[in-house]
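Hello support,

Our group uses your service weekly, and this is the first time we've seen a run hang past the timeout. The protein is SUEL-type lectin domain-containing protein. I'm not sure whether the cause is the sequence or the server load. Input pasted verbatim:
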Amino acid sequence: MTLQLKSYTACYGNTGLDNFLQPSCATGEKMAVVGLSALAKKLSTSCPVEITISNVAVTPDTCCHYDTIDCSISHENSLYRNYYQQCNGKAGCILQVSWLPTTCNQTVFLDRTNYMKLDYYCIFDQGQDPCSDFSTKDSRVFLWNSGYPSSSLTGSLTCKCSVEASCESTVMLTAIDLRLGNSTVCGQSIIITDGSTVIMFDCRDNNDYLPKIFYVSTSHFIQIQIVDNLGFADGYYFILIEGVSTGAELTLSCGSTSQVTPTVPFTSLSDCPRTHVTTETTITPFFTFTKI
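Update from on-call engineer: The timeout came from a worker crash unrelated to the input. Re-ran successfully.
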C-alpha cells in the first residue's frame, strides 16, 4: 500500500477547538509532519480574518479549507518548531492556529492569514527502529530510534540498514527530527555509504525539529549506519526516505536483513513508472556533511 499524504486545516479564531489543528493517526501509527503553512483567502470570498462568536454561524466551511489559489506562507523557521515537536512521532496532537501578515497582493488577498494547514504522514509498517531485523517496501519509508519520541538512543549501539529503489531513481533523505547527542564531541552519527562515497552526519547537523533534506544519493542503493558511542542515553532521530523519481518503490532492510550490495544492479534497472506529471525540480541538501 502506498503511503498517502494527509492534511489538516483550521481557521484562526476564538471559538474553541475548531480553531486548533487536530491531526491524528490510528492507534499504533506514528505521525511525521512534513509541512506547515499559514494561508489567506481572496478578498472576494468575504472570509473573515478571525472566526468569532458573532460570525461563526455565517462563515462558510470553505473559508477554512485549502485551495491551491490561496496565498500560502510556509512555516520553516525556528519560531514554529513547537508545532513539529508536539506532533512528530505521536498518534495525534492539538495546536492553536496563529496568523501572519500576508505577503501576497493585499488588493487581492486578506491582509493577514486566516487559516493554517499541516501536512503529515501516518506511519505503521513503512518504517521502524533500524536495530530491529525487518524489511519493508513503500514509496516512502522511515527510520526512527527505538522508543521515539519518548525514549532516546542508549549511548552504546551500532545499527545498519540498506535502501534500494525499484527503478532508475536516486534516494532522498529528509530529517524530520535530528537531535544527535554530544558531550565534548559529537558522539553519535549517521554514516551513509553511497557507492564509493562514505559521508557522516552528526550533532553539527541537527535540524531543530524543522524538516530538512540532508542527503540525495548518486545511485539507487545506499547503506545507512547509526553509530552511537556517546556513552550515555541521549539523542533522537526520525528520518523520511523517498525516491527522487516519481513512481519509485523503496525497500528498506535493517538488522540481519540489511544488504551489502543491491539485488538489481543499476545497469539492469528499468525506468520508473510515471504516476502523475510533475515538473522537474533541483534538490539542494540543507546540511553540510563530512566525507570519511
